[in-house]
Amino acid sequence: MASASRLVTDKDFQCSTCHCVFTDPVAIPCGHNFCLNCITTHWDTNRLCSCPFCNKTFTDRPLLCVNNLIASVAEKFREPLPQQPGRICKIHHQPLDYVCSNDQNILCYECLDRDHKNHNTVKLEVWMKTKLDQLKDSQEKVDELIRQRQEKIIDLQNSIQAGKTNVERARSGSWKAMHASIRYIKRSFAELQEVLDDKQSAVEAHGKGLVKEIEKEIVQLTQKNAELQQLQPNNDCIQFIQSVRNVRIDPPALTKDWDAESIDCDYSKVEEAVNQLQMSVMNEALMLCDPELPEMQRFSVEVVFDPETAHNLLSVSEDGKQVQYRQFGLTVPRNPQRFECVHNVLAKEGFKANSFYYEIQVKGKTEWDLGVASESINRKGEIRLSPQNGYWTICLRKGNEYTANAGPAIVLNFTKKPQKIGIFVNYEKGQVAFYDVEESVEIYAFTGCTFTEKLFPFFSPGADVDGNKAPLIITPVIGPTTLSSKHLIGASVSQCKYLLYLNGCGRRQAILTLKYCP
After folding, report:
1. 3-state secondary structure of 34
2. Are residues 46 and 183 in the same domain?
3. Could you tell me the sign of the dihedral formed by the alpha carbons of 361, 362, 368, 371, in that order?
4. Is the keyword Zinc-finger in the record (predicted)?
5. Chain segment 102-138, per-residue pLDDT in tens
6. Which helix (H) or strand (E) holds 227?
7. What is the residue range of 7's domain?
């Protein structure tokens, strides 16, 4: 009798690289199989570690292990197939057309009538179709399990990469918080980097450990898949029944729930700890963030733009609190106070022999000039901003170039772009100081100046170029508040000093208040 044809052929066990039956077959994470030597040679001769079949790339070179089960099956395809036995009952010499569901025996009609009359029996074709459906279902489930684990590997690898990105974000973000205390705790930033590196190392180690566990399960599933493939039927039903009679065709019992596994890439706790560090250090380093700013805010004054001094391309709001450039000029009356060649404007009121403070919002702007100017400045011709010409100003150009117009200009550096500028003038001491209000730090100060006439707040919103559409806005000064005794009773000296600082009191006021408290 001629040998039966296989449903599984040697093509199913051929390497897609060398097109020969596998020699030392190995599986890679994408699910494809190759000869050990073929895939090793491919990875050694290519820059990227990828699958030659589907071109999927891997961040790390996978660990390869020979699949002994596939190797043994592949070896059999190098041997001739044995002659298959016929489908005839050896006892009754009748066709074997039935299967007993009770004991899985193959029966002829006589066997069924004599020994299996009270058993559950089905036609061989019906039983075979049922088993084939079960086999197909199990194989689909195994394939799905492999797919899920391959996706989990990709998810874990993406999480590792996201962790690297997040740790770099946390590393750079930590500088903002550490800058306030960097002069007093220089080593803290380096120690924070070590914490981040250790955490990321732990995350990577955990992630790689999970990947290895999944790869082991994939090997198990691949082996089971090969085993199920080996059980694929040929034309000989008897051989198929005999081959699956004592073999479990259900998917392997894998108890681990990989959906519950993930990698913690959240570094918000690190950033929160850094912010707490900043708060605690601020208690001992009040001067670092210039505690005098709240004291200077006590000298806040009402400032409004004077439309009578504004260049005709500047638009002043009705309440006098906003000014911005406009494309088309309006016809305005000429007067000695108005700027004619440059886009400047002054405040309505000037100050002499007193200290004063005000704040201007510069958010969203790429160009501006701010400061104070003497009453007698030139307003009609070419203007050069410098103390020698009666201007004490700082400016922004091109979105990120800050300078103090000290004649010569002094470049100013920032760790964060200021959104609101505070300007304090001590007329008697000859001081004009500029502050980043949100960061409570001094930007620049003109000192040792000699003032002999009124000083007017000076502004220039700049032309509408490079997205410089936002107006300059004079904002209300949120001045210091008064602490009630309930905030101080039971608090330590350092706690009281810190509470007073947060509420706008300078160091001297804090100490005086503490001495007064019982």
Report:
1. strand
2. no
3. positive
4. yes
5. 888 888 888 877 777 778 888 888 888 888 888 888 9
6. helix 186-230
7. 1-83
For residues 423 and 332, state if they share a domain. Answer: yes
- Work out the angle at residue 298's Cα, subtended by the Cα atoms of residues 297 and 302, and round it to the nearest 5 degrees: 80
Same domain membership, residue 462 and residue 315: yes
**Are 415 and 407 within 8 A, CB to CB?**
no
Please, are residues 474 and 358 in contact by the beta-carbon 8 Å criterion? yes
How far, in Å, CA of 459 to CA of 307, rounded?
12
Query: What integer is the mean pLDDT of 236-248?
Result: 72
Q: Look at residue 108 and tell me if it is in a domain.
A: no
The span from the CA of 23 to the CA of 25, in Å, is 6
Segment 438-495, tens digit of pLDDT: 888 889 999 999 999 999 999 999 988 888 999 999 999 986 543 433 344 444 444 4
Give the Cβ contact number of residue 321 at 10 Å: 18
Same domain assignment for residues 297 and 441: yes
* CA–CA separation, 513 and 507 (whole Å): 10
The residues pairing with 33 across neighbouring beta strands, listed in sequence order, are 27
Look over the chain and give the mean of its residue pLDDT values, rounded to a whole number. 80
- Indicate the residue among 235, 261, 284 that finishes a domain: 284
Phi, psi of 282 (to 5 degrees): -60, -30
Q: The pTM is what?
A: 0.43
Assess if residue 110 is contained within a domain: no
Token pair of 205 as six digits: 């180690």
- The pLDDT value recorded for residue 7 is 55
Strand, helix or coil for residue 428: coil
Within a domain: 106: no
Please name the residue that has the structure tokens 């001067």: 287
What's the CA gap between 444 and 447, in Å, rounded?
10
